[in-house]
Design goal:
Layout lengths: L1 H10 L4 E6 L2 H14 L2 E6 L5 H12 L7 E4 L14 H29 L3 E6 L12 H21 L4 E8 L5 H7 L2 H9 L12 H12 L10 E4 L11 H4 L1
Parallel strand pairs: 1-2, 3-4, 4-5, 5-6
Helix pairs in contact: 1-2, 1-8, 3-4, 4-5
The structure holds nicotinamide-adenine-dinucleotide.
Length: about 250
């Protein structure tokens, strides 16, 4: 999803895009792709659960002219553990990557935006797992619910600096994270062809989330702040399954 979003912003004319991920190989691929589009790619290899790495990423983004217009805090991790078996170490690991990093990155970015004085947009990837129960996912769900709450407070406190703060809550997507959770390429292929728990009967595409970020960062989103935009193919609206499945 980060890759699709970087592409979308480069195509929209972003002068530079700074990538921050722990996976150097993934970053290098995207850096080459962005350079071809004509945007200045910058990159930081680091761990979002290390506050010093988050600050290093923001420092690299503002290097030169001090400007940072948009932060998209999207890196995340998940693992499935039944509640009765969930270890405290795993609870903290997922909270550190998904939630504490959201605070640290968001604060560093907001401080840079306030210093530059041009306002900005701060965007987070939450999840429908932060709004609903997901079996085996208590730690992940809480981390994403925390982002939805963080967004509301940040939005109100930062409004005087013309900084808007929003998050997107995707449903199941066609990304490597889902592949890891589903366990095999065959299971992914089956989910691509049909995923009946989603009214649209398919996985979402990273480009569809990237498009929502582009809207939220643009002038079209100028009156939108403190919101959680759900992009889930109708999944969370579908409390009851189809009538013929009930029969
Ligand atoms: N895939 C889904 O179905 C889905 C649904 C809802 C929300 N999300 C959220 O979307 C976001 C993007 O996930 P994705 O689906 O593109 O998965 P992905 O696994 O393809 O991407 C996650 C990225 O985060 C990076 N990352 C993980 N831990 C990191 C760390 N400690 N430090 C730095 N980088 C780290 C990984 O290297 C990877 O590039 C995540 O926040 C995820 O929770 C995903």
């Amino acid at each position: 999803m980060g890759r699709a979003t970087a592409h979308r912003f480069a195509q929209e004319g972003a002068a530079r895009v700074t990538l921050f991920d722990k996976d150097a190989e993934r970053i290098n691929d995207v850096v080459s792709e962005l350079a071809e589009i004509g945007c200045e790619p910058r990159s930081v290899v680091g761990d979002v659960s290390r506050p010093e790495d988050c600050r290093r990423a923001v420092d690299e983004a503002v290097r030169g002219d001090g400007r940072l217009d948009v932060l998209i805090s999207n890196a995340g991790a998940d693992s499935i553990h039944p509640f009765l078996e969930l270890e405290l170490e795993e609870w903290y690991r997922i909270l550190d990557i998904n939630l504490t990093a959201s605070f640290v990155l968001g604060q560093a970015a907001a401080r840079a935006m306030v210093a530059a004085g041009n306002g900005g947009a701060i965007l987070y990837t939450a999840s429908i797992s932060g709004m609903t129960a997901s079996t085996g996912d208590a730690h992940y769900g809480v981390s994403k619910a925390g982002i939805i709450s963080l967004v509301q407070t940040m939005a109100i406190e930062l409004v005087e600096h013309n900084i808007r703060v929003n998050c997107v809550s995707p449903g199941p997507l066609d990304t490597p994270m889902s592949l890891a959770l589903l366990g095999s390429e065959e299971a992914m292929e089956a989910a691509r062809e049909s995923w009946p728990i989603v009214p649209m009967n398919r996985l979402g595409l990273p480009a569809e989330i990237a498009g929502t970020y582009a809207y939220l960062a643009s002038a079209d989103g100028a009156y939108t702040t403190g919101q959680n935009i759900v992009v889930d193919g109708g999944m969370t609206s579908n409390v009851f399954p189809l009538a013929d499945e009930l029969a």
